[in-house]
Amino acid sequence: MNSPDSLRKAQVVRTNLEKLQRIPQATYDEFASDFRNAEASLHLLQTAIQALLDIGSGVCARLGLDTPRTSFEILERLEQAGRLPAGSANRYAPVVGFRNRVVHLHDRIDPQIVWRVVTERRSDLLDLLEALLAYA
């Protein structure tokens, strides 16, 4: 059964993904035509990815797994425990890396990378959410 915290965080992910769909993104030029598109996307992606990591961390704790030291280790621990499909840690590593870049290198974010994450990797967030909720 899902914990209330996991369900709340899952709703953050779903809501953010719905909001991302409303941001103009058919082409990079359309996306870049208004600085608010990239700024809003950054926030929505960062908080959605953090919510996913929080859910994953909670699953690790409930399973009694070794405490992950990094965001990527959350995925590794869950994969090693058979709670995520084989290859998941590597599949979702770019999304986790993007979140880390937003948090720690926020002054060096390329809007084209933001657009690519919105258009090419957004489905990964939903896939990871579904996989995590199976064990939350």
The main β sheet shows up as: none
**What's the average pLDDT?**
92
Identify the CATH homologous superfamily. bsu32300-like
Q: Which architecture does the CATH hierarchy give at level 2?
A: Up-down Bundle
- Provide the CATH top-level class: Mainly Alpha
Residue fraction in strands: under 5%
Shape: elongated
Tally of helical runs: 6
Q: What's the order of the H and E elements?
A: HHHHHH
Report low-confidence residues grouped into runs of 5 or more: none
Through-space gap between termini: 7 Å
> What is the radius of gyration?
15 Å
**DSSP, total strands:** 0
User: Structural class, please?
Assistant: mainly alpha
CATH topology: Four Helix Bundle (Hemerythrin (Met), subunit A)
Count of separate structural domains: 1
Helix content: over 70%
Task: Give a description of the structure.
The chain is mainly α and 136 residues long. The chain has a single domain (4-133), classed as bsu32300-like (Four Helix Bundle (Hemerythrin (Met), subunit A), Up-down Bundle), CATH 1.20.120. Helix content is 75%, strand content 0%. The chain is built from 6 helices and no strands. Helix 3 (35-63) packs across helix 4 (71-80), helix 3 packs across helix 5 (88-104) and helix 4 runs antiparallel to helix 5.
Write a compact overview of the structure shown.
By secondary structure, the protein is an all-alpha fold. The chain has 6 helices and no strands. It has a single domain (4-133), classed as Four Helix Bundle (Hemerythrin (Met), subunit A).
